[in-house]
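Reviewer comment 2.1 asked that we show a complete input and output for one of the modelled complexes. We chose the flavin-adenine dinucleotide case, as it is the one discussed in the main text.
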Amino acid sequence: MSDHAKQQRDIVIVGLGAAGLYASKAALSQDRSCRVTFIEERDFDQFSPCALPFAIEGVIEDMDRLKHSLPELKNRLSKYLSHSAVSLDPEAKVLTVRNLQNGEDRPVPYDALVLATGAQPVMLPVPGAAQLAGKGIHVVSDIENAAALKNAATRTDVRAAVVVGAGAIGLETAHALVKLGLSVTVVEAEDRPLPRTIDPEMAGPVLDRMKDLGIKPVFGRPLSRVLGRECVEGVQVEDETIPCEILVMAVGRSPRSGLAVRAGAAEDRGFIVVNNRMETTLKDVYAVGDIARTFSRINHSPSVMQLATAAYKQGTVAGINAAGGNTSYPGVLNTFVTAVGPLYIGGTGYTLETALRSGYRAKAVNLSAETKSHYMPGGVPVTLRAVLEEGTGKILGAQALGTEGVAWRINIFAAALHGGMTVHDLAEAELAYYPAVSQMVDPISQLAEIAIKRLKLPPGKCEDVFTPLYNPDDKTKRST
Ligand SMILES: Cc1cc2nc3c(=O)[nH]c(=O)nc-3n(C[C@H](O)[C@H](O)[C@H](O)COP(=O)(O)OP(=O)(O)OC[C@H]3O[C@@H](n4cnc5c(N)ncnc54)[C@H](O)[C@@H]3O)c2cc1C
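Response of the prediction step:
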């Protein structure tokens, strides 16, 4: 081995999802001489999980279009596909990797290790579920199981599906199955859709839209049993029986953190505990994406965010640090957008429920307004809700609903939250206007002004944040 090769830092990444991918990109650009090795169980590089509901529905016709490949770079980036990381010795800094085709194990030493092993769908342990696994019970997490669901849903003898779980994945899947012509029921133990991400006051329009689309809600009662002998024939929800040939479990995703936990990394309900550098409690071992427990951007309390946007940012931070840099993760806001047919639903930060549970004295202010001025054709209502701290007007969260303009408005709230802004700052912020896309006073500004009055906040102070580059009246500073 040459001196140069000995100095080359070896970064091993387990899992080639969004978090692993961005860790590799960041590491390779941080340290131009480091070597990145991927260990990935799949026999192909990557795919886009977020697009699976669109592929089930048929908007994306060919599931293989969701696959991507990552070119190897000579001496810098290599991949072991169809390989599983089975154990980790953090003292010796060696990972044991199994070739899934021939069962052979081999040691893989590392200087820095990034664990990006993702999460897997949770199966509710109700009677009948284990016996009927693979016989009509489906999950949506990868190309194979999404294709299996689509094949089952398009069989002529299949008429009805039950989706358990009214989170984003459950609702998106329910919509896809309705579009394929099935009669669809969504069963949810809580009393409303998206129970963990929006407040009850925002749930009504989501429920209405589900019903408009023909999705039957069975809310406030948990799934109690899966029925059937050879295959799924129905489900029981308390004393109600709902016949179906397809049952989709969409009740959450548990972290695939066994490797790190067995090696002694600190965990919290199965999520790997990391600091703001994305370091685990094991030396030179990082955890990112769906397996990591990070912290809230708002109050630094422990927090988990199982979304691709967090995976990308956390992977980037870990990659830079694993390659010798020093950067920090800013914390999660759980900013999201989903849709039920044409209705978009977005949120960021705390709901009123979570803000109150976190100990804030908080209030929510809602506004429904048209997206365009009254004289412009095509305006539609958008409903905004801001969650604010009483007394200070600090923004703690926001939610939005509507058939257009939801994502960009929620992203403005997300940026405001990221910057620790108050509702006064938001009222002062200059937002763009063009009759085809907004009102001159955008609903965000309208909401901010209403909130200042409603919460009886003291008048805001408009601070001068910029020093003028050139003051024509200040002759002493004029250059000659
Ligand atoms: C149906 C669906 C829709 C979604 N929609 C959205 C959306 O609209 N917006 C959004 O932001 N997020 C969405 N998400 C969430 C998002 O996809 C995940 O948060 C993101 O993919 C997590 O990335 P990750 O890299 O942590 O994990 P993953 O992408 O799951 O990658 C983990 C990888 O690790 C591999 N692996 C696991 N264990 C081992 C091992 N021991 N050895 C080797 N390899 C291993 C796995 O094979 C996998 O490839 C959606 C998810 C699903 C399932």
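Residues 14-20, 39-42, 49-50, 52-53, 84-85, 116-118, 140-141, 169, 256, 259, 289-290, 306-309, 311 surround flavin-adenine dinucleotide (CB under 6 Å). We note this here for comparison with the apo prediction described in Section 3.2.
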